[in-house]
Amino acid sequence: MITAIVLAAGQSKRMGQPKMLMPWGKTTVLKHVIDVIRAAGIEDIIVVTGGEREKVETEIMGVNRIRTVFNAGYESGEMLSSIQCGIQEMRAEAEAALICLGDQPQVEERSVRLVCDEFLKSHASLVVPSYQMRRGHPWLIARSLWNDFLKLDASQTPRDFLNAHAEQIRYINVTTSSVIEDLDTPEDYLKYKP
User: Is 28:58 a contact under the CB 8 Å cutoff?
Assistant: First the structure.
């Protein structure tokens, strides 16, 4: 089983309002991301909250089979601590964690499926989508590397981890730039908004 960890703990400082709750089509940014992950066949989803915790948790309260975990260190821990929080909540039957950005509504079902299918086929320790030689999201980390990831300290980043395990990465080349896009600023939102 693959479990998705959706990172939704940021403070949205550059956006100036909670990114996860902004309208996206007929829903919100965060709910759209969850819908895409579900459409790709992933049933077990953990949403890591932090900034605007109450609003984010209220937003997804009615969504079936969603678990939330609060990253108490969201203000200082960046993405690393959120992924670590998610990994610590994994069920025993989970074989891999799919790391998804809550502020990446551009994510495509096909990209999610390609990453997951590659893991199910090859059982690679790490599967990362690549667009024009740039790593993107969502990427996948197998259970065999979770302990190594949990040992990282606050001075390190997920990128450092991937660089240290570069020989174990199975890259999936994609033809869509959506794997390297997310929403950081009002300009991004206006550029990508459907």
Answer: no
Report the C-alpha gap between 104 and 188 in whole angstroms.
Answer: 11
Each residue's pLDDT tens digit, 85-112: 999 999 999 999 999 999 999 999 999 9
H or E, element range at 67: strand 66-70
Q: 2-192 belongs to which CATH class? A: alpha beta
In the chain, where the domains are located? 2-192
**CA–CA gap between residue 138 and residue 107 (Å, rounded):** 8
Residue 139 tokens read as 């990427």
- Using CA atoms, how far residue 142 sits from 20, 96, 124, 156, in Å, is 27, 4, 7, 19
**For 11-57, how does the pLDDT look when each residue is reduced to its tens digit (9 = 90+)?**
888 887 889 999 999 999 999 999 999 999 999 999 999 988 999 99
Pairwise CA distance, residues 73 & 171, whole Å = 31
Q: Report residue 12 as tokens.
A: 């949205």
> Rounded to an integer, what distance in angstroms lies between the CA atom of residue 123 and that of residue 126?
9
Per DSSP bridges, beta strands 23-24 and 66-70 are unpaired
Contact between 106 and 180 under an 8 Å Cβ cutoff? The reply is no
Beta carbons of 179 and 101 less than 8 angstroms apart? no
